[in-house]
Amino acid sequence: MRKQIPAARRAVFDAAIASRLSDWLSGWLKGAGSGRVIALWWPLAGEPDLRPYFAELVTQGWVIALPRVPAVGEPLVFGRWHEGIAMREEHHGVRVPDPFEPVSPTLIVAPCVGFDPRGWRLGYGGGYYDRTLAVVDVPAIGAGYDCCERVLAPEPHDRRLQAVLTESRTIRCG
After folding, report:
1. What is the CATH number of the domain that holds 60?
2. What is the domain count for the chain?
3. Which one, of 101, 113, 107, 170, lies nearest residue 144 by Cα?
4. Is residue 22 classed as helix, strand or coil in its secondary structure?
5. Global pTM?
6. CA distances from residue 40 to 1, 37, 57, 151 in whole angstroms, order as listed
7. DSSP symbol at 89
8. Does an H or E element contain 18, and which?
9. Which of 63, 70, 69, 174 is CA-nearest to residue 123?
10. Are 161 and 24 in contact (CB under 8 A)?
């Protein structure tokens, strides 16, 4: 369903999600520590595209961290993105900064193929974000389109997101 959203409409939705992320970050920073490393993503087909917002985040003092799949079955690692850096395609079509400079995120924003309003996330099924969220103890939120909302049954390894951002709302998940 998300892949069927026309490109012009998707761009409007993505801008709305970026605006909600900006609002959420403003509120989150009041209670956060000093680290400002935000894990985002280089979009795959159908995922929200927040790349136009990256430069604004950097201007606000954030370091952008993009995920890399180090090996099948392992958690993601994150590398610093900056304007003009080369991007290289790796496992599963994921594009990563080249050269890859590892950084540790203080906040993870994960793309949602599907989500539940209680904070459960559905990805592509490889479990990379599940493994990552299990070992990286930082706040995590999701971003997806309203049409991706589902009722999901969490599995024992799932970690609830603090919020899910869509084009029409910010869902606080407890």
Report:
1. 3.40.50.10420
2. 1
3. 113
4. helix
5. 0.92
6. 22, 10, 11, 24
7. E
8. helix 7-29
9. 69
10. no
> Could you give the dihedral angle defined by the CA atoms of residues 107, 60, 17 and 95, in that order, rounded to the nearest 10 degrees?
-70
d(CA 131, CA 125): 12
> E-assigned strands of the chain?
37-39, 63-68, 77-81, 86-89, 95-98, 102-103, 107-111, 114-115, 121-122, 140-143, 163-165, 170-172
What is the overall mean pLDDT for the chain? 91
CB neighbour list of residue 122: distance below 8 Å, 6 or more residues apart: 112, 113, 114, 115, 148, 150, 152
The predicted-structure confidence for 106-156, as pLDDT tens digits, reads as follows 999 999 999 999 999 988 777 889 899 989 999 999 999 999 999 999 888
Copy the structure tokens of residue 57.
Answer: 């985040």
The list of the chain residues with pLDDT below 70 reads: 1-3, 29-34, 174
Residue length of the chain: 174
- What residue numbers bound the domain in which 163 lies? 2-172
